[in-house]
Amino acid sequence: MLLSSKDSILLIVDAQEKLLPAIHQRDNVTSRMRWLAEIALQLDIPVLITEQYPKGLGYTVSALQEIIESARVVEKTHFSAMQEQSFRDVLSDYDKKQVVVMGMETHVCVLQTAIEMKQEGYQVFLPSDCVGSRRPNDKDSAITRMRDNNVEIITSEMAAFEWLHKSGTDTFRHISRNWLK
């Protein structure tokens, strides 16, 4: 199945300041998350952010500050956001069936959230270049496990071009001039 901008929401899971220094290839991961989130906002795709115990782990990374201003942020203590009623309430408010999930750590909160969303009937997409863990093996194993649980493994560019759907539009020209570099 392909992504549709009208049916999608972008979920950023726990991309928090105190986790970031330990994340393998953190600069690449945060750069790709920001890139895709900026495109989502340009296409009026809602952005939802979770923060795992922010008093201890800090708030969402400063590289995503502009995204935070346009997103809804939900605090959580469960590893899976789906275990938090406040998150479920916000998610259902959007009434979207496709969820693009990115964030940290791939093998813990991202994995548990994605699998439980899939079990609840959502179409879940994971851009593999927009997730990070401390150890590459944890990330790779989590991606394999999510694929085995029918989460669609994609890249940030796949998401962007599926959301855009076609070239030749004003939106495509604007985005390609500013973000598809």
Task: For the structure shown, list the relevant keywords.
Rossmann fold, Nicotinamidase-related amidase, 19% strand, seven-stranded parallel sheet, Isochorismatase_domain, 8 helices, alpha/beta, 181 residues
Task: Explain how this protein is built.
The structure is a single chain. This protein is of the alpha/beta class and 181 residues long. The chain is 44% helix and 19% strand. Strands 1, 2, 3, 4, 5, 6 and 7 form a 7-stranded parallel beta sheet that branches.
Short description:
Residues 8-157 form the Isochorismatase-like domain. This protein is an alpha/beta fold.
> What is the makeup of the main sheet?
7 strands, parallel
- From the helix content, strand content and strand pairing, which structural class follows? alpha/beta
Query: What spatial form do the alpha-carbon principal axes imply?
Result: globular
Separation of termini?
26 Å
Quickly name the level 1 CATH class: Alpha Beta
Strand fraction equals 15-25%
Q: Which H/E pattern describes the elements?
A: EHEHHEHEHEEHEHH
Average pLDDT works out at: 95
Q: Report Rg.
A: 15 Å
Number of strands: 7
CATH superfamily: Isochorismatase-like
Number of domains: 1
User: How does CATH name the architecture?
Assistant: 3-Layer(aba) Sandwich
User: Count of helical segments?
Assistant: 8
Q: What name is given to the CATH topology?
A: Rossmann fold
Q: Please give the share of residues in helix.
A: 40-55%
- Low-pLDDT windows of residues: none
Question: Strands, helices and their partners?
Answer:
Blueprint (H helix, E strand, L loop, with lengths): L7 E6 L12 H17 L4 E6 L1 H4 L7 H4 L3 E5 L8 H10 L3 E7 L1 H14 L3 E5 L3 E2 L3 H13 L3 E3 L1 H9 L5 H9 L3
Parallel strand pairs: 1-2, 1-4, 2-3, 4-5, 4-6, 5-7
Helix pairs in contact: 1-7, 5-6
Organism: Idiomarina aquatica
Pfam families: Isochorismatase
Protein name: Nicotinamidase-related amidase
